[in-house]
């Protein structure tokens, strides 16, 4: 009888979680469509835009020093999207408009950290995405992907470095990209170094994994395989079918990023679909997707090869929406936590690693992983900790850490859930502007290797 009650609760929780995620996904998609239709109507009938004969000349004459600024690249997290996807909807809630030199790449929303890092390089530098021969053979997908004819920053090199801002898994993508640059891992680009990156800022960055992966369906035994009945299994089935149907306009609007696995109905047919659904092929069978990288074990595997570089500046914003009452960790608010995350905040705060399973690292303690933001544990976001702790410094007031020192992970803890500073600007209120203004000001005024950059409309020193 007790077993039946436990199973009933499990299926009820699975149903509720699936329903909430599905509703939220539909809300985002429908909001994007509604926004695009509204803009199209206004442009067509109410406020037609004046014709600009030469847009490039207009841009360069109004802001003469624009192209002397290093770009700030905003990198989205899991289920995220870049500029051009979901129409006019902004993943970073319009923060990219705060600076004249911002890029928002569109990377695979569910692809592995490795594949996204490779895509990010070619998005910036230009050329055909090369996932690497050895990696592609090991995980059973095409070696080459999308082609960027020119690249969005082809002059990128050590003399023209880049500021990166990553949300959630996007922060780990940037770290791996920097390591690849240091390792000269891009064929035909043997001159790369870690100094192509001048700064990395993370918003709720997942540096050490998250216990939510186990709640959603990853097995704590290995951090690679999935439980047979779980939210992630439902996600897996939905993604496979979405990619197999392969409706061009729909995938142009939103793409999970698995095109290099060739899961389209035109390439694999009905038997290939059945093989994928049974778990015999595709990214979920090989493990070359984002969730295995977000487990504690997967993050430790990644971190084992990632360095903190002495000439790079690091700053992290850590989100937290829990507090302790009589020694028990509970959600800090009912109304300020998004419905998508409230149940998970409570579950993560009470997470206990299975007693019959070996802990993910020596010295693991459940209590260290209780504070969270509904998606990530607070301990994961501060700085790389496992298997080796990197130099770090806790910041209360940002004015206390100026000037910044390179090679140190500065981190500041703020109250908020995992999506406080993305998609919906109104939720964060004034904090939205305070956070992003601080990020852009830091990149433009306080972080540089040689001379301070000349900002638009400012005279040269």
From TrEMBL:
Main location: secreted
Superkingdom of the source species: Eukaryota
Membrane-spanning ranges: 14-34
Localization of this protein: Secreted
SUPFAM superfamilies: alpha/beta-Hydrolases (SSF53474)
GO CC entries: extracellular region
Protein name: Uncharacterized protein LOC111491847 isoform X1
Source species of the chain: Cucurbita maxima
Organism ancestry: Eukaryota, Viridiplantae, Streptophyta, Embryophyta, Tracheophyta
């Amino acid at each position: 009888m007790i077993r039946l009650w436990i199973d009933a609760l499990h299926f009820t929780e699975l149903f509720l979680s699936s329903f909430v995620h599905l509703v939220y996904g539909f809300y985002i998609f429908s909001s994007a469509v509604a926004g695009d239709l509204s803009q199209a109507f206004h442009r067509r009938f109410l406020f037609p835009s004046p014709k600009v004969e030469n847009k490039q000349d207009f841009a360069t004459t109004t802001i003469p020093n624009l192209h002397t600024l290093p770009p700030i690249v905003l990198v989205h997290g899991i289920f995220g999207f870049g500029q051009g996807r979901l129409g006019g909807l902004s993943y970073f809630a319009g923060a990219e408009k705060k600076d004249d030199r911002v890029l928002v790449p569109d990377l695979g929303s569910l692809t592995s950290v490795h594949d996204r890092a490779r895509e990010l390089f070619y998005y910036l530098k230009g050329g055909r995405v090369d996932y690497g021969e050895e990696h592609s053979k090991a995980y059973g997908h095409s070696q080459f992907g999308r082609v960027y004819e020119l690249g969005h920053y082809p002059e990128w090199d050590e003399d023209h470095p880049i500021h990166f801002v990553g949300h959630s898994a996007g922060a780990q993508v940037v770290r791996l990209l920097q390591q690849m640059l240091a390792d000269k891992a891009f064929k035909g680009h043997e001159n790369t170094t870690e100094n192509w990156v001048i700064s990395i800022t993370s918003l709720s960055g997942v540096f050490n994994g998250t216990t939510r992966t186990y709640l959603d369906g990853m097995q704590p035994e290995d951090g690679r395989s999935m439980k047979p009945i779980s939210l992630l299994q439902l996600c897996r089935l939905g993604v496979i079918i979405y990619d197999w149907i392969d409706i061009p306009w729909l995938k142009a609007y939103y793409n999970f990023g698995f095109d290099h696995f060739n899961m389209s109905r035109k390439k694999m047919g009905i038997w290939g679909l059945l093989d994928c659904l049974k778990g015999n092929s595709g990214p979920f069978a090989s493990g070359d997707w984002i969730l295995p990288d977000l487990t504690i074990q997967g993050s430790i595997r990644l971190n084992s090869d990632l360095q903190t570089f002495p000439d790079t500046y690091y700053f992290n914003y850590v989100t937290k929406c829990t507090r302790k009452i009589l020694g028990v960790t509970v959600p800090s608010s009912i109304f300020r936590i998004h419905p998508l995350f409230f149940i998970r905040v409570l579950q993560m705060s009470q997470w206990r690693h299975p007693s019959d399973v070996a802990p993910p690292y020596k010295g693991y303690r459940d209590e260290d992983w209780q504070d969270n933001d509904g998606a990530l544990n607070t301990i994961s976001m501060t700085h790389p900790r496992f298997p080796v702790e990197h130099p770090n410094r806790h910041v209360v007031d940002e004015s206390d850490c100026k000037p910044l020192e390179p090679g140190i992970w500065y981190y500041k803890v703020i109250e908020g859930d995992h999506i406080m500073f993305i998609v919906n600007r109104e939720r964060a209120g004034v904090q939205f502007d305070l956070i992003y203004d601080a990020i852009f000001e830091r990149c433009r005024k306080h972080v540089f290797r040689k001379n301070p950059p000349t900002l638009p409309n400012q005279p040269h020193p």
